[in-house]
Design brief:
The protein is mainly beta and about 270 residues long. The protein folds into 2 domains: about 140 residues, Jelly Rolls; about 100 residues, no CATH class. The strands form 4 sheets. Strands 1, 4, 14, 15 and 17 form a 5-stranded antiparallel β-sheet that branches. Strands 2-3-16-12-13 form a 5-stranded antiparallel β-sheet, with no helix packed on it. Strands 6-5-9-10 form a 4-stranded antiparallel β-sheet, covered by helices on one side. β5 and β6 form a beta hairpin. The longest helix has 15 residues.
Amino acid sequence: MGITKSRIEYINSANRTNGTNEDFYITLTPWSREDDYDYAVILYANIPVTYYMVVAGQNTFTLVESGSNITVTIPSGNYSVQSFARVLGTTLTAASTHGWTYTASFPNNASASQTGLYTYNVTGNTGQPSFVFTSNLFELMGFNSNSTNTFVGSTLTSVNVVDFVPENTLYLYSDVIETKDNNTENIMQEFYASNIAPYSNIVYQCTAVEAYAKKINKGNSNYLHFTLLNENYQNISLNGQPMFLTLLLYKKDNIIDILKKLILKWLL
């Protein structure tokens, strides 16, 4: 099958009708019913890596001390493994309601093997504290989501290698496409980035239009919604910077109609 009609839209989230740079509504020029596009696909995307490792609203976990639940809030921003360790120790100590002192350490490059694990210690304690995670901060601290992790002998070592790479899996959701078959969540396009650094850009180019295209939501208007989320369905904040998308709308050849025309032409 080929493409009989197509239309390209250049979308800059800064020119949105409503919303934010990463969760926005945009009004496109209406297309006629005669165009009747069937499929939509993202041809190109440019997403700034201006989102933080620690995001406001997703920057808390629970510290449990002698049965007391304490909410610990880490300041939003980007960190190295060493700066995050220092902030963790200071923040945990300040949050303690029992006067316990916490430290977090990472293997020294010059004198120890690199395990990629944090070691947490507590002093002045009269019991063993715990870290409780839901869907926040667990990757940075080296634990699993929805887990409780209890100190033993006043020490706790992370169970996973810590992750200080900016979000490298992003999903673009949109109501321009249908929710059916194997795409029940309105995922317009996924973006996998490797070796990205803060303040750089994720640049995507579609390599196979028909393979990545999805059926258009026929009940939708030209007022479209786009949302950028991570793999944990959490919002991504681009901190004031816009994303750019090239959207292709197209209609496929209908092989049955083509054959009918050829037969009629032959008969006449």
